[in-house]
Design a protein that fits this description.
four-stranded antiparallel sheet; three-stranded mixed sheet; 7 strands; about 30% strand; elongated
């Protein structure tokens, strides 16, 4: 079993990961973030994938083809005939940073001691 990076249909990362986990019993990680974005109607909270169109799945090399053809999955990142794996430590560090299955909220507030960069004015 190893971690692979899968490509989903646009804006369907979380759905593809959930279906893959449910239908094939695969461990998946699809990190999402929540932040405030200015819109023409004022600031709104938005939830998006941390890596648009990508998510991670821990699958066995023999199940690559089956995972590749799962609903909402467009494929698995590969280079020719090489299917690169992601070390467990990388996924663990990412889970620790953004939270396991939870949505990581990016606070729009500036706190004392935060580093800021003034770009205009």
């Amino acid at each position: 079993m190893a971690w692979f990076c899968l490509v989903s249909q646009r804006k369907h990362e979380y759905i593809a990961a959930a279906q893959l986990a449910e239908q094939q019993g695969v461990t998946v990680f699809a990190p999402r973030i929540r932040f405030r974005r200015p819109t023409r109607l004022g600031p709104r909270w938005i939830t998006e994938a941390l890596f648009p169109t990508y998510f991670f799945a821990k699958i066995s090399p023999s199940a690559i083809r089956r995972a590749q053809h799962a609903p909402q999955v467009r494929g698995i990142v590969h280079f020719g005939n090489s299917w690169p794996t992601i070390p467990d430590q990388t996924i663990e560090a990412l889970e620790k940073t953004v939270g396991g299955g939870e949505i990581h909220v990016i606070s729009p507030e500036v706190s004392v001691g935060d580093e800021v960069r003034i770009i205009a004015g």
